[in-house]
Structures are given as C-alpha cells and as structure tokens.
Amino acid sequence: MSTAFDMTAGQVTIDGRKILRGVDLTVDDGEVVAVLGANGSGKSTLVRALLGVQPLSGGTTLLYGRPPARFREWWRIGYVPQRLSVGGGVPATVREVVASGRIARQRRGRFTSSADRQAVAAALNEVGLSDRAGDPVSSLSGGQQQRVLIARALAGEPDAFVLDEPTAGVDAGSQQMLAQTLSDLVGRGKTVVLVAHELGPLEPLVSRAVVLNQGCKVHDGAPPTAVGAHALPGHDHVHPHEPEPAESSLPSWVLAQEKA
Ligand SMILES: Nc1ncnc2c1ncn2[C@@H]1O[C@H](COP(=O)(O)OP(=O)(O)OP(=O)(O)O)[C@@H](O)[C@H]1O
Ligand SMILES: [Mg+2]
Questions:
Q1: Which terminus of the chain has a smaller tally of CB atoms within 10 A, N or C?
Q2: pTM for the whole thing?
C-alpha cells in the first residue's frame, strides 16, 4: 500500500507564532481521515501544510513520497479549501469553475478533450448542478457554491480528496448531497482527508480521526463519538448546571484539551 500524505514533526510558524507544533500524520491510500478540533486549533493550517500550500518552518511532508517542491502529479489531489469565495465579482459560470478542476490533467497547449467534457458533466451530475451549468457561480446559494467546489475537485478525478469543512454553514439539502458524494468516494476506495468541527452523520464513513488542540495532535485513532457529544472537539462551552464528569471516564486527549 502506498502512502498519500506523510508529515513528520510538521511545524508552521506565522509571524513568529507557532501555529502547528510538530505534527506527525500519515495517511495511507484508501484511508478516510477526519481532522477535528476547535476553532483556530490549526486544522486548515495542517491540511494546507500537508499539501505544501503552507510552507513548513520545521519537519517534513511528503505527497505520494515526494516533497511538495518535487511533486509533479497534482492531478492526483483534489483540494476543496475552506470558505473560498468563488464568484467574488468574477462572472465565471458553474461549468467554467468545475472545468478548472481539469487543468492539472491537461497537457500544455492542448485543448479541452471529450474526456475533459465528460468528467465535467459527470461531476456536475454527481453534485446535482447539471441544470445550473451555464449560470454565474455568484447567482448560487452558499451551499450550491460549495457543491461547485466539490464538483471541481471531482472533475479532476484525483486519487485523494482534501476537504476543508465542506459542510460548514450549508443548507440541509447541500449537506445531504455532500454526505452522499463523500460516501460514493469512500465506496470507490478514494483517499479522503476531511476537516470538520463535528462529524455528525459522516462519522460512519470515517476510518480514523485526528484531533488538534492549539496546533498539537492530541488524538489519532477511532472517531471520538464513543465518549459522548460533550467530548466532541469544538464542544468546549461550559454547562454550569451539570455535574463534572469523572476524569477517569474521559480519554486522555479530551482531558488534554480541557486543561489547555
Ligand atoms: N495567514 C495567517 N496569518 C496569521 N495567523 C494565521 C494565519 N493562518 C492561520 N493563522 C492562525 O493560526 C491558528 C490556526 O488557524 P487555522 O485556520 O489553521 O485553524 P482552524 O482549526 O482551521 O480554524 P477554523 O475551525 O476556524 O477553520 C489561528 O489562531 C489563526 O488565527
Ligand atoms: Mg479552518
């Protein structure tokens, strides 16, 4: 089995502040890994560093065995960044944005092929936006725009998907659509790294969960739903009327988070 992502002691420092503090993370082909953690815990920074979009200030990271600067097979990775405002003033149509997902597959100077057109049509169909293909992206709802970004990643037919909070703040219909798409990808044996605040209905799809707290990996293993909703990352508000849980009933990574 080959390894899609392999970070060792990954460190990110921005303006002298340590944002990622020595994270080890290996994602094998076919794994479905959730990256969980509270706001600002470093989830987006971690996936950006995994992809080489965010340079490391220490440690190493490999994409299919190569450091980002020597990686050439970008078509193998479909990245859906968090809160990308596609459309922001640019009158691109849904089809154009989705077609941009084919760029890493196209040879220089080659025009769009029928394989490109088919992949774009299939991706639009998968996310239920075939009938909106000619519309400006800016005319779509937030959830539909998120689906456009997913379709762009799908259109590239990558081996690995890196999705940064794809369901955050989208309508119920789009959430359902995304869950279905994710489940299809998992069924097809794709590698998935999924950033989320909470897994919710996606939990059964995930083979492993990594939890970040203040730039440190504090858990790497089974998804943490077994310990109850209050232990979920991000659920860090106080319930003054409830008794303190017995410390021994909580796994160590939860305690580490609460003490931080
Ligand atoms: N470009 C940047 N400049 C300055 N600080 C940054 C930058 N990118 C991230 N940070 C800081 O690094 C920390 C981690 O940010 P990051 O976006 O990775 O967290 P996150 O877990 O993805 O948060 P969220 O759940 O809100 O998406 C935060 O404190 C953030 O303010
Ligand atoms: Mg984020």
A1: N
A2: 0.83
